[in-house]
Amino acid sequence: MVEAERSKLPYAAPSRTMSAAARARRIARACGVFGTGVSLTVLAGWWFDVPAMRRLLPGHAPMVVLSALATLMLGMALLFAARRESARLSRRVGRCLAGAAAAIALGGGLQYAIPGSFRLDDWVQRLVFAPLAPGSGMALATAIGAVGAASGLLLQDARSRRLRLLGAVAALFAFVVAAVGGLGYAYGLGAFHQGGPFSRMALVTALTLGTLSLGVLLSRPNRPWVTSVLGGGDAGTLTRHLMPATVLAPLFLGLLQLHAVRAGLLEAETGTALLVIVLALWLAGLTTRLARSVERRAVADRQLRDALQGMNEALEQRVAERTRELAEAQDALVQAQKMEAIGQLTGGVAHDFNNLLTIIHSSVDFLRRPNLSEERRTRYMDAVSDTVERASKLTAQLLAFARRQSLRPEVFDARERLAGVASMLDSLTGARIRIVREMPESPCFVRADPTQFETALVNLVVNARDAMAGEGTLTIALSCGRTKPPIRGHAGSPNDFVVVAATDTGSGIAKERLTQIFEPFFTTKEVGKGTGLGLSQVIGFAKQSGGDVDVASVVGRGSTFTLYLPQAEAGAGEEKAVPEPDGQPLEQADRCILVVEDNIEIGAFCTQILHDLGYGTVLTQTAEAALAEIEAVPFRFDAVFSDVVMPGMGGIELAKRLRELHPELPVVLTSGYSHVLASDHAHGFEFVRKPYSAEQVGKVLRAAIARKPKVRMAPADAPV
Ligand SMILES: Nc1ncnc2c1ncn2[C@@H]1O[C@H](COP(=O)(O)OP(=O)(O)OP(=O)(O)O)[C@@H](O)[C@H]1O
Ligand SMILES: [Mg+2]
Q1: Which range (52-56, 232-236, 241-245) has the least confidence?
Q2: What residue spans define the domains of the chain?
Q3: CA–CA distance, 394 with 146 (Å, rounded to integer)
Q4: 588-707 CATH, one of 3.20.20.60, 3.40.1180.10, 1.10.10.10, 3.40.50.2300
Q5: Is 283 exposed, middle or buried (0-12, 13-18, 19+ CB in 10 A)?
Q6: Span from the CA of 561 to the centroid of ligand 1 (angstroms)
Q7: Which of 398, 525, 557, 563 to mutate to test the pocket of ligand 1 (most atoms within 8 A of CB)?
Q8: 522 C-beta closer than 6 A to ligand 1
Q9: What are phi and psi of 103, to 5 degrees?
Q10: How far apart are CA 650 and CA 392, in angstroms?
């Protein structure tokens, strides 16, 4: 479309793709060939005495031998100068020939400078043929023109820019002299030949010299004006388009006018006036045409711009579409990855739980058998208890990864904790692994759950041990007052952090696995050797505590796991452990517990436990029903034991209401999973994590009731 628009322009660029430089050189060479050819023809005409060859243009004066020699030298010099890659030698030869032409011309022009002096043209003429005819010889105009053209050639490669310019001006002057000399013949103006600088210049000489001067001007195509005039761009096209109209047309009109006056068709004055009027009209027409061209060009440019803008907008639209498609594809990918992760997680949980359930199932089967020896009964009971313990650990790790575990953050000295678990870590790693500890001078207080902190340490140390295949060095470095850098695209933090870095000399981790290792159930260990939950616990605990874990590793050299935990002031916000109730054992049979649990089996099981512990119980399935029970008989209950996640009000809301309505009534909450408790564990209420044992429930309830203010007004009703 753009090409089509351009081809409609009045002065469209020529389709030829030849560069301005190449075109200029070609014209210059053609001028050289013409000049050389004419000069040789004239010389041959003199030598072989063929008059027609001396004058070439019938009816006109011949070119004298000296002029022919000068133009021959110039023509050959031009051919050397206009070669595409003129070597040093050929340039030198060209300059010598131009010097010779200048010398010949100066010799011929000497007679005009010093009248009566030696006439070179006459002398040369005699050598060849015969003395010069009277009134002939090298014209002053020819001598000046030849010197000018030769100077142009001599100076065109000068180092100084000014000299090069002077050469160009000299060549231009030569062209004008030759052109005026030639025009004198065309216009039949005797004055141009009978006196003054142009006298007696033969027409053939004027044509040859003019052509040669033009060639000299074009022989250096790197000049800006040559590029403008001959270039393929708009300027060149416009110049070539207008040049004939602005130069040739006035010359032709002038010629017409002169002949018309001479033929008596017009008065001289009328002719001049007519010429002026016609020229003015001609120029006005040209100007209008130029203006129209410019206007058309502007319109074309505008259309071009509009087209470009349209293309731009279309492009932007396509980019936006592609970006949207890409985002959709990315979403789909993320979704697919999520599904894969969920699949992996579900598969892992199902696999592990199936193993544990198999143990429980078969143990219970054996326990049901009559006549079981006490020793085997104890063994199966222990197996069930251990398995439940492991299952509970598994869920705890999963919750840790999900950052939904109920943490009990405390402020403790990490240095002290590390020293406390040192011997345990030593026994974990074995004798062939050297543990280097780098501890700070002063204590490092951290706010986190100490049990989870130790678990994270154990996980890191066990991983390091496995990576070192039981042999190597493990460095545990503790430092405080450090900032947290950006980790895996998460922003850093300028706050103070306590940092534990565990560096091993083990196998290292491949770069593409660095993020995968934190996924739950991702393991490279043999079946039965790793569950793939260790690092999930570490990262879940760190993140939930307000910190993070970073990993750096070089395959074959080792890895460094860096655990960041928020630093705390010494003793700040330390949470006191629940004091064990001391003194007299409580009369539990008098105690009545309101159990709130929406799951019927768990509710029944819980009341069974409490009965076995000697408590009276009332079971409700919703928080609303529990409130109604309490309001029905105030002070009936000694404590409320409630699940957290239930339809309706929920355990936390119930506990908060009770804190307002009955501040003396202790509330113990229980849950296996609660984001509410995970985000703010305490809420000021006691909490027992599911799965719980009878012992844990009894301990917490005893402690809660022991702290209860003794304001009971009425005895509890019989248990339901
Ligand atoms: N220090 C380490 N050097 C090399 N690889 C490690 C290191 N720590 C972890 N890994 C890699 O990360 C994987 C996941 O570790 P993670 O602790 O989560 O699970 P695991 O050790 O395989 O199993 P688990 O800890 O549950 O027994 C490992 O299987 C191991 O490939
Ligand atoms: Mg591990």
Answers
A1: 232-236
A2: 20-230, 410-566, 588-707
A3: 108
A4: 3.40.50.2300
A5: middle
A6: 11
A7: 525
A8: yes
A9: -65, -45
A10: 24
The residue ranges of DSSP E strands in 158-291, in sequence order, are none
Residue 397's CB is within 10 A of a number of other CB atoms, namely 22
Contact at 8 Å (CB) between 482 and 499? Answer: yes
DSSP letter for 517, please: G
Whether 160 and 151 have beta carbons less than 8 Å apart is answered as no
The residue written with tokens 């197996």 in the block is 383
Residue 122 CB contacts under 8 Å (≥ 6 apart), including other chains = 131, 132, 137
The verdict on the CB of residue 504 being under 6 Å from ligand 1 is yes
Look at the block and give the residue holding tokens 């196998």: 507
Amino acid occupying residue 232: G
Please identify, by atom number, the ligand 1 atom nearest to the C-alpha of residue 529.
27
Are β-strands 472-484 and 493-504 bridged in parallel, bridged antiparallel, or unpaired?
antiparallel
In which residue are the tokens 């005895």 written? Answer: 715
List of long-range contacts for 2-11, beta carbons under 8 Å, 24+ apart: 2/304, 2/307, 5/300, 5/303, 5/304, 6/300, 8/296, 8/300, 9/293, 9/296, 9/297, 9/300, 10/241, 10/289, 10/292, 10/293, 10/296, 11/234, 11/237, 11/238, 11/241, 11/293
Ligand 1 pocket test, pick from 344, 345, 474, 517 with the greatest ligand atom count within 8 Å of Cβ, gives 517
Q: Check residue 304 and give its pLDDT.
A: 94
Classified as helix, coil or strand, 5 is helix
- 431 CA distance to ligand 1 middle (Å): 21
585-610: per-residue pLDDT in tens?
A: 444 557 899 999 988 888 888 898 89
Distance 548 CA to ligand 2 centre (A): 17
Predicted local distance difference test score (pLDDT) of residue 329? 92
The order of strands in the sheet holding 472-484 is: 433-438, 472-484, 493-504, 558-566, 548-554
Ligand 1 pocket, residue 534 CB under 6 Å: yes
Name the token pair of 27. 């014209």
Ligand nearest to the CA of 537: 1
User: pLDDT tens digits for 495-540?
Assistant: 999 999 999 999 999 998 888 898 888 889 887 677 788 898 899 8
List the Cα angle 549/550/552 in 5-degree steps: 150
Angle at CA of residue 290, ends 288 and 294, nearest 5°: 115
DSSP states of 550-586 as a string?
EEEEETTTEEEEEEEEEB--TTTTPPPPPPPP-SSPP
For 99-111, write each residue's pLDDT tens digit: 999 999 999 888 8
pLDDT tens digit sequence for 345-359: 777 778 778 888 888
CATH number of 410-566: 3.30.565.10
Half-sphere exposure of 197 (CA within 13 A, CB side): 13
Amino acid at 472: G
Q: Are 559 and 583 in contact (CB under 8 A)?
A: no
Within 10 angstroms of residue 617's Cβ, the number of other Cβ atoms is 21
Ligand 1 pocket check for 463: Cβ under 6 Å: yes
